[in-house]
TrEMBL record:
Domain of life, source organism: Bacteria
Parts of the chain that traverse the membrane: none
Compartment(s) of residence: Cell outer membrane
Domain SusD-like N-terminal: 51-240
GO CC annotations on file: cell outer membrane
Signal peptide: 1-25
Key words, A-Z: Cell outer membrane, Membrane, Signal
Main location: membrane
Pfam families: SusD-like_3, SusD_RagB
Protein name (record): RagB/SusD family nutrient uptake outer membrane protein
Family: Belongs to the SusD family.
Length: 506
């Protein structure tokens, strides 16, 4: 007797997320999307032909467009409002803890994100685990390798976000079997996977990316939505900068390979986030700086702009409630102290609004890097890679401070700022702080700041000081310490699976 329906009824959406590629994990899908059928000998056919595989690959790509809440909206809340870049923005109990450092395992944002990330992993696993079983001879060996590589890049992206948020989590790479009365003892544990270590997570991400870089599509200048070799190289550069795999030689290697793929800084910073002259569409897509972006056009819009500010194509659309991720006084001050008008005006905008949670309602600042329903969301861009190379040159065993300073100056030059002075260029610690500041101003509201502080062990130094100097921040609840580098695992996850343990400090 099949117990699938009973099992689903006894578990939550969380459990379905944990079930890897279980055919139950997304019950709203149509039957044909879940499974193509069963052969006469009882073998389950997940993809009956090439068209079914390509349809599922499209589903993976659609996650970049249709499910932005966890990988973009929530990630900006964490990276900017949980750092010194922004306030929570609204008074909601689910978001304020990121500003005042009172996050607990009951936080609904983290619960949503954990579940959705694991659902994304399950979608990737479905293709990775089953594509080689497809009997359709029109699906060539080269196509199988490429599609699998794209799915591995997607899985690596998801796991990279997860490991930076939580550290230890279940690294799921297999498909959970259906439970029957005959196999329940054997299969049931698959739905409650163990918690892998942070190092094991990074090793799996590394393996996926090294596999994928061989077979993924090349960078296509006219289409930056692809999970390409360049995306894999970008992620390799980023993971080798993190503590568990830290290898600055490899960071430099993969940053240089991204450069060799044809990427460079755009001349005009406004090309990245601006609107066209008519104010009806994004100014540009697929710039030479964009490595991976989610694109939106009229009729298939980017709803994220509602969360952060105004939709410039539809001025009053959803502008009646307080927005998330309000730029902090400390960040605004950093722009002004640097004289950085170029990036400031592309990052922050002021409007009249109906609320005054942090500023007077008639002169209220908003995050400005997502401006309309037609704005692209840039997940990775070359300025991040370039500044990461500078970081590696500073932090490697034999620092190349001059080379790092030259890179920082290249980024500053686009912002119409002068070169770093000799006193900064010749001192490792001073130059590292200059790099951190440059990354802060260049990449504000792009999901970077918190992770920069964590990666370089700057959380306590920066965050415990900002509350005293930023008069607009809500009062700090808990002091940042060594346990703050990881966020709490959702309590509902721990309640459902005794193999999952809470991170220290929560």
């Amino acid at each position: 007797m099949k117990l699938r329906t009973i099992f689903y009824g006894l578990t939550s959406g969380l459990l379905l997320g944990l079930s890897s590629c279980s055919l139950n994990y997304e019950p709203l899908d149509t039957y044909s999307d879940v499974t193509e059928g069963v052969t006469s000998d009882g073998t389950k056919i997940v993809f009956k032909d090439k068209a079914a595989v390509e349809s599922h690959l499209t589903t993976l790509y659609n996650q970049m467009r249709d499910r932005q809440e966890h990988w973009y909206v929530d990630l900006l809340l964490i990276s900017d409002s949980h750092s010194d870049n922004a306030y929570a923005g609204t008074t909601g109990a689910e978001v304020v803890p990121f500003e005042n450092n009172s996050i607990e395992g009951s936080n609904s944002v983290l619960e949503r994100d954990w579940n959705r990330y694991l659902e994304d992993v399950a979608r990737a696993n479905k293709l990775i685990c089953n594509i080689d079983l497809v009997t359709d001879n029109s699906l060539t060996t080269a196509e199988r390798a490429q599609y699998k590589a794209e799915a591995k890049i997607f899985r690596a992206m998801v796991m990279f976000d997860m490991v930076r948020l939580w550290g230890d989590f279940p690294v799921i790479t297999t498909v959970a079997d259906d439970i029957t009365s005959e196999n329940i003892d054997e299969v049931y544990p698959q739905y409650f996977p163990k918690q892998n270590t942070e190092l094991e997570a990074y090793q799996q991400i590394e393996k996926d990316l090294l596999d994928a870089v061989l077979y993924a599509p090349d960078n296509t200048p006219g289409n930056k939505t692809l999970f390409s070799k360049s995306v894999a190289r970008t992620l390799l550069a980023k993971i080798y900068a993190e503590k568990p795999l830290r290898d600055y030689t490899k960071v430099i290697q993969y940053c240089d390979e991204v450069k060799a793929d044809g990427f460079d800084l755009v001349d005009d910073f406004s090309d990245l986030f601006g609107m066209n002259a008519a104010g009806t569409d994004a100014k540009m897509r697929n710039t030479k700086e964009s490595i991976l972006e989610a694109q939106f056009t009229s009729g298939a819009g980017n709803w994220c702009t509602w969360m952060f500010g105004r939709d410039l194509v539809n001025w009053n659309n959803n502008f009646t409630w307080a927005k998330w991720v309000t730029p902090s006084r400390d960040l605004i001050s950093a722009f002004k102290q640097e004289g950085d008008e170029v990036r400031f005006k592309e990052s922050i905008v002021y409007y009249d609004c109906n609320w005054s949670n942090y500023y007077p309602s008639d002169n209220y600042p908003f995050m400005y890097k997502c401006r309309s329903a037609n704005s692209s969301i840039i997940k990775y861009r070359y300025a991040d890679v370039l500044l990461l190379k500078a970081e590696a040159l500073i932090m490697q065993d034999t620092p190349d401070l001059e080379g790092a300073a030259d890179i920082i100056d290249e980024v500053r030059d686009r912002a119409k700022l002068g070169a770093l002075p000799t006193s900064v260029r010749s001192n490792k610690n001073v130059l590292l702080n200059a790099l951190l500041k440059e990354r802060r101003l260049e990449l504000a509201f792009e999901g970077q700041r918190w992770f920069d502080l964590v990666r370089l062990d700057k959380v306590e130094e920066v965050m415990n000081a900002v509350y005293a100097k930023d008069s607009g921040r809500k009062a700090q609840i808990y002091t940042f310490d060594k346990n703050s580098y990881r966020l709490p695992i959702p309590q509902s996850v721990i309640d459902a699976n005794d193999k999952i343990h809470q991170n220290p400090g929560y």
